[in-house]
Specification:
By secondary structure, the chain is an alpha/beta fold. The protein has 2 domains: 2-50 and 384-395 and 422-440, Urease, subunit C, domain 1, CATH 2.30.40; 53-372, TIM Barrel (Alpha-Beta Barrel). It has helices spanning 75-82, 101-112, 133-142, 160-173, 184-196, 203-207, 211-227, 241-252, 264-268, 291-302, 342-352, 358-372; strands spanning 2-11, 14-23, 26-31, 40-43, 48-51, 53-58, 85-91, 119-125, 147-151, 176-180, 233-235, 258-262, 308-309, 390-400, 419-429, 432-436, 439-440. The strands form 2 sheets. Strands 1, 2, 3, 4, 5, 14, 15, 16 and 17 form a 9-stranded mixed sheet that branches. Helix 7 runs parallel beside helix 8 (241-252).
């Protein structure tokens, strides 16, 4: 047994000073002045005790054809752990054309088993629909894959009828469909036009994916979801004020079951990063936007209009894979690291700068993602019966984020040199200390596959 003594326990409804007794990997009891028995005591005085982070948008070992993300399930989850994230739900790569839904699930079990050091689940990926797709989906649902992602852009994009079918099926099963919302045709046209005009610098990555084309796709998804009987719809990596405005309007019309995620990079950086010498580091889809978008996204978080902050962690080496785009942005693999930085950046830029409350921080980094993807109350919350996934966080200290101190296999961080308020001192996974002062002290393969339930 372990006791966390005298910490400031943070939940989505407030904070209180108390003790947490952990038994067999779970939170057994929470109270004031619990008497210590035969147990290991961790002194948490003056520290926040936060629920371990739940990052529901990572891409470990992602094969994008022109490159492969450089974090596998070992290095990527060590990075997650050191950054205070104890659960990930990974978005898998597309499989071969026409493959059954289970093809990629099997592949991902192979990639993660024996490697992951935090608990993990997988979102299924929908890349076509045939006569077997929905019965395969029902089988996968029984195996704990209760969410499926559809892309509105890229090679295996879904058409509107497929989106409608996916939403209806997820509504019937109690699952969650997640969508990458960008208008494919206009973006494809603009990319081709820019290349033909010799406009191949990184800034044209942003110009080829205009904000309106995110807003259009968001609006289309919302209308289809409404027509499907207010079917659940989860929009990943929202980056624009105009997309958020569509969501506000749909909710104002009374539409229910809309879930929205953004990522730290869209809260912290704007498109001027594409003018820097190292602009390729910031090539991701959707692209970085304008300062007005950043501001709107912070407001969206503060007003509970955005439920989740994920990362879209999808790292490629700046010195290697990213250089494919040095003469032409369209040849650059899209994506950037973030799983190690998310909790620290959001606390520092959000809570310490008083843009969001501590309770909101806990909601968007742990509780809401766990609820949306069928992991609650096992994950995402500090209460008896939940897994003892905890962070001891010292809010009084500062640190400077730098690649030198990071565990991801990638060769850069987007946040190099950023001073952040707060420091992660310890991370516990199911009651075991797995990170101590930025050192990973757990074991390769200790992460468990999470059989997820229905969404809440
Ligand atoms: O640029 C990005 N975001 N790459 C990862 C795949 C995706 O669209 O989420
Ligand atoms: Zn995406
Ligand atoms: Zn992604």
């Amino acid at each position: 047994m372990t006791m966390i003594k005298g910490g400031i326990i943070v939940t989505s409804s407030g904070t209180f000073t108390g003790d947490i007794r952990i038994k067999e990997g779970k939170i057994f009891k929470i109270g004031r002045n619990l008497s210590a028995g035969e147990e290991k005591v961790i002194d948490a005085e003056g520290r926040y005790v936060l629920p371990g982070g739940v990052d529901v948008h990572t891409h470990m070992d992602l094969d994008v054809g022109i490159a492969r993300a450089v974090d596998d399930f070992y290095t990527g989850t060590v990075a997650a752990a050191c950054g205070g994230t104890t659960t990930i739900v990974d978005h898998m790569a597309f499989g071969p054309k026409g493959c059954p839904l289970g093809h990629q699930v099997e592949e991902y079990h192979r990639l993660a088993d024996g490697k992951a050091v935090v608990d993990y689940g997988f979102h299924g990926v929908m890349q076509h629909i045939d006569e077997n797709t929905f019965s395969e989906m029902e089988e996968l649902f029984q195996e704990g894959i209760t969410s499926f992602k559809g892309y509105l852009t890229y090679d295996y994009k879904l058409d509107d009828a497929q989106i409608y079918e996916l939403m209806r099926k997820m509504k019937e099963l109690g699952g969650m469909p997640a969508f990458h919302a960008e208008n494919h045709d206009v973006i494809t046209f603009l990319r081709k036009q820019f290349v033909e005009q010799g406009k191949t610098q990184p800034m044209y990555h942003a110009k080829s994916r205009p904000a309106e084309m995110e807003a259009e796709a968001v609006a289309r998804l919302l209308k289809i979801a409404h027509y499907a009987g207010d079917a659940p719809v989860y929009i990943v990596h929202l980056s624009t004020e105009s997309g958020l405005q569509e969501i506000r309007e749909a909710r104002a019309r009374g539409q229910k079951n809309i879930y929205v995620e953004t990522c730290p990079q869209y809260l912290v950086f704007d498109e001027s990063m594409y003018l820097r010498e190292d602009a390729l580091k910031y090539i991701m889809s959707p692209p970085l936007r304008k300062e007005t978008d950043e501001k709107a996204l912070w407001e969206g978080l503060a007003r509970d209009e955005i439920q989740v902050v994920g990362t879209d962690h999808c790292p490629f080496h700046y010195a290697v894979e990213k250089q494919k785009g040095k003469d032409d942005f369209t040849a650059c693999p899209n994506g950037a690291p973030g799983v190690e930085e998310r909790m620290r950046v959001l606390y520092s830029e959000g809570v310490a700068k008083e843009r969001i409350s501590l309770s909101q921080f806990v909601k968007v980094t742990a509780e809401n993602p766990a609820k949306a993807y069928g992991l609650y109350p096992k994950k995402g919350v500090i209460q008896p019966g939940a897994d003892a996934d905890l962070i001891l966080f010292n809010p009084m200290e500062t640190e400077v984020l730098t690649k030198k101190n990071m565990r991801s296999a990638v060769d850069y961080t987007l946040y190099e040199g950023m001073q952040v308020q707060g420091r992660i001192e310890k991370v516990l996974l199911r009651g075991n200390v797995i990170v101590e002062e930025n050192e990973f002290i757990g074991e390769k393969g200790q992460g468990e596959f999470l059989v997820r339930g229905k969404s809440r």
